[in-house]
Design brief:
There is one protein chain. 36% of the residues lie in helices and 24% in strands. It has eleven helices and 13 strands. The protein has a nine-stranded mixed sheet with strand order 5-4-1-8-9-10-11-12-13, with helices on both faces. Helix 1 (37-46) crosses helix 9, helix 9 (258-271) runs antiparallel to helix 10 (276-290) and helix 10 crosses helix 11. The protein is globular and about 50 Å long. The N and C termini lie far apart (40 Å). The relative contact order is 0.15. The model has no long low-confidence stretch (mean pLDDT 92).
Length: 314
């Protein structure tokens, strides 16, 4: 059996982030950082002291060195980050006090869309306890969609846990595409994350958490997490047994990528032998702390912040 060097390997896009706590029309300065759903998952797990690898294609533009040095400083394994002659995507996010969040994507024909099956190495996938990708990764291009399927297929053949989040967004994909991505990858998926606000209504068109859980169990899913903003918590199910873990806090500033921060913390905990309920509690703390700042990764918490709260039982 291949030695498990990594707790988690994520596959997906990297983006430049420009954020502000003013409305975009008023902001004279935007804070530069980086994001992307699979990258947030990777960093969230890494900041909790997991060993994490990241697979992506990075654009050879003015942001390349900033991205690489930042990810190196985070401690991510970057052996399978490939630099290509395309631009990097970016997004802008604004969360002015008392105002609706503004979010703008620029992600057409970007470097991560160059991801392909040639970037998926069997030995690398086999060296991890868990492999993660999302519907956003699949949406980048036909080639990236094939890359996700290849990675999950290798993982399933070699006893590596697979984790998937449809992460549906109407800014990125159609409902029909989201359903197609889901149906293609679900036979290879062990852990499924979904949002009741977006994913379940889009893919299943069912409101009942109980009925959704039953459908997913019938599909053979081992572990399911449904994030419910309406009920202010997480439904976690395994072997048809469902538990509820409340949000750590309702005092949030910006929920951009808080679901991704949850996924990274949850997978960190699973890789370190916590139960699914314990993992959800740890991840709820991580996501809650992350949502108290602006942007995707900048406010993602570190080990001591999360575990001091978890161990105190607050």
């Amino acid at each position: 059996m291949t030695e498990k060097i990594f707790d988690l390997i994520t596959i997906g896009e990297s983006l430049i982030e420009f954020s502000t706590n003013q409305k975009l029309k008023d902001a004279e300065c935007l804070h530069k950082y980086y994001g992307g759903d699979s990258l947030v998952v990777a960093v969230a797990a890494k900041r909790l002291k997991s060993n994490v690898g990241f697979i992506t294609c990075l654009g050879n533009d003015a942001f390349k060195d900033y991205m690489l040095s930042s990810w190196n400083n985070e401690g991510l394994d970057l052996k399978h980050v490939k630099v290509v002659d395309e631009k990097n995507g970016l997004y802008m996010v604004s969360r002015a006090p008392g105002e609706t969040k503004e979010f703008i994507y620029y992600r057409k024909k970007i470097a991560p869309a160059k991801l392909s099956i040639d970037d998926i190495y069997e030995d690398y996938i086999k060296s991890s306890k868990i492999v993660y990708a999302s519907g956003i990764t699949q949406s980048l291009s036909i080639a990236s969609r094939e890359a996700v399927k290849k990675a999950f297929s290798i993982a399933k053949e070699n006893g590596v846990i697979t984790a998937y989040d449809p992460n549906y967004s109407s800014l990125i994909e159609t409902v029909e595409d989201a359903k197609e991505y889901f149906e293609e990858i679900i036979p290879f998926t062990d852990i499924l994350f979904m949002s009741s606000k977006y994913d379940t209504k889009c893919i299943f068109e069912i409101d009942s958490i109980e009925n959704i859980m039953k459908n997913l169990a019938d599909m053979g899913l081992q572990t399911v997490v449904i994030k419910s903003a309406e009920n202010k918590g997480y439904y976690v199910s395994s072997q048809r047994n469902t538990s509820f873990v409340p949000f750590y806090t309702e005092n949030v500033v910006d929920t951009t990528s808080s679901g991704d921060a949850f996924n990274g913390a949850f997978l960190h905990a699973i890789a370190n032998s916590f139960t699914i309920v314990e993992a959800a509690k740890i991840a709820s703390i991580g996501a809650g702390l992350q949502a108290q700042g602006i942007g995707a990764i900048k406010s993602t918490p570190y080990y001591d912040e999360v575990y001091n709260i978890y161990k105190s039982g607050e």
